[in-house]
Every structure is written in structure tokens, then in C-alpha cells.
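Changelog note: in this version the structure field was regenerated for every chain. One regenerated record is shown below for reference.
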Amino acid sequence: MRFACAARDSDTLQQLRQILPCDVQVIDHLHPLFGQCLPAKTFTHRDGILFLIVTLPDGSPATIAADVTDALGNTRTPKETPTVLSIDGIRRLKVLVEATRSNGNSTTRSKKCK
């Protein structure tokens, strides 16, 4: 029996073997190296996660999760986009805004900034 994800993993590894070595860009905006273009030499698996072996700007080797780079054709940001407020915070903000509007208090200014 062969699992569907095993075939996809095999395809992914074949794709990496074909393109490496190459430069990859870090596309995860939460990653400290976001926006950096790094030379990737090879790949490895650790605990079921695919990592690329890259050279950092200071010349030292490092591993970086492949899914935070554009190596596999990713051009989007990661699945999870952080928010400043929690759901509860958004609800409380909504209540505050509605209360401010119903009291006739306006926080908008008539002057425009120059």
C-alpha cells in the first residue's frame, strides 16, 4: 500500500534534486531572514520536515525550512497571518467604536495634516 502523500513527497524531492543548487528567497514575513536571497546547496529531512541547507549572508551554513522559501514554487506568504488583536480584542474594539459613535463623540478631525 502506498500513501498519496508519499508520492507527493517523492515528487517534491525530485523537484529539489533538479533545481539545487540554486538561490532561494525567504518568503515568510515572520522569519528573521525575510526577503533575503540565500544560496541553497542541498536538502535534508528532520522529524518529517523538509529543510534546505543554505549559506547565510555571513558565509556560515544553516538549515531553513523549505516551506518558508520560494524553492518549491511558493510565492505566497505562509498559511498563518498574524493579527495584532485577538478575536476577543476585535469584539471589544467593535463595542468601543459603536459606543463612541452612539454617544456622538467623533474622533475624526476637520483639519488635514500637511
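Spot check on this record: The chain is about 30% helix and 25% strand. Residues 4-19 form the longest helix (16 residues).
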